Every structure is written in structure tokens, then in C-alpha cells.
């Protein structure tokens, strides 16, 4: 357990350092998920080597994954915000609100599966399709996985002065590891 804790701290620091140029956030997120996936599967992890390899060789997949998750979250979240206030005045606007909220929630639930499936080497389109199916159908796995990623980060940001050390040491790697733990036994993730 102590070896995994040290690896998580190293991984989190590597992630934060590689996110300093903001344009490298997508491959950094992908590389961190790649390493935590290896940890969940009990594979030997050389933190710096595996992170650097995933960061440099899989950067295109990292950008594809990041934008496939971030764009629906941003646009549907904006739609929820916009239509929620106007649905009280005009009940017809409740339908676009429901559509936006469904896209937002499904994206939250599917994103841990999406990053996990991308680490198996499948094509991005196939990973996206499978993650949407698994995110909506396997709620007993997708809800805890999404809460471990987005819930812990949201809580840490809301408690920021107190949670600064947590975010610096394990605040990004630990949620990724927890999400990988919750989704580790799903069929398509175990096949390859």
C-alpha cells in the first residue's frame, strides 16, 4: 500500500507539472488515466516512464478524449443553465432543458468508462459508443466512478484553502484511481 501511495503522489505531481502549459492538459489527463488503469489491474508501474510514454505517444487520443468529454459537458451544462431559468416562464422550454440535462448526466456517467476503454487500444469511436452504453446501463458502476472523479474534485475546489495540499499531493490521481477501481470488472474493459 505504501508503494501505491508514493506512486500516486509522483503521478499527481507529474500530472500537475505537465499541465502547466494549459495546452497539454488533454494528454496529461489521458496519461494519468493510463497509469492509474495499470495500477488498478495490478500491472507493474514505472510511474515516470509509463506516464511519459503515454503522454508522448498517445497525445492524439488524449485530445480526442478530452474534447469528446469536455465539449458535451460545457455545451449541455450551459443549456441546462440557460433553459432552467426560462422553463418556468415558458413550459415548452422544459424539453430542451431535459435534453441538455440528459446529455450532461450521461456524459458525466460515461466519461470514466471512456477513458478506461481508451487504455485498451480500441478506436475512439468504438470507445465512445461502448462508454455511453455502459455509463447509462451500469449505474451501479458509473455513479460511484463519476462521483469519485467529479465529486471529490468539486468538494476539493469548494474547500480550496483547506484542500490545497490534497490537490497538490493526490487530488487528481486518487480520483482517477478510484474511478478505475469502480469500472475495472466491466466486460469490454476486461476483454483486451
Architecture overview:
It is a single chain. The chain is built from 10 helices and no strands. The protein has helices spanning 2-18, 25-40, 47-57, 59-87, 94-118, 124-137, 139-158, 160-169, 173-183, 187-191. Helix 1 packs antiparallel against helix 2 (25-40), helix 2 (25-40) crosses helix 9 and helix 6 (124-137) crosses helix 7. The radius of gyration is 17 Å and the shape is globular.
Write out key terms for the chains shown.
192 residues, mainly alpha
SSE string, helix = H, strand = E? HHHHHHHHHH
Please provide the count of β strands: 0
Q: Look at the structure and give the mean pLDDT.
A: 92
> Helical proportion?
over 70%
Number of helices: 10
Layout: helices, strands, pairs:
Elements: H1 2-18, H2 25-40, H3 47-57, H4 59-87, H5 94-118, H6 124-137, H7 139-158, H8 160-169, H9 173-183, H10 187-191
Provide a quick synopsis of the model.
82% of the residues lie in helices and 0% in strands. By secondary structure, it is an all-alpha fold. The chain has helices at residues 2-18, 25-40, 47-57, 59-87, 94-118, 124-137, 139-158, 160-169, 173-183, 187-191.
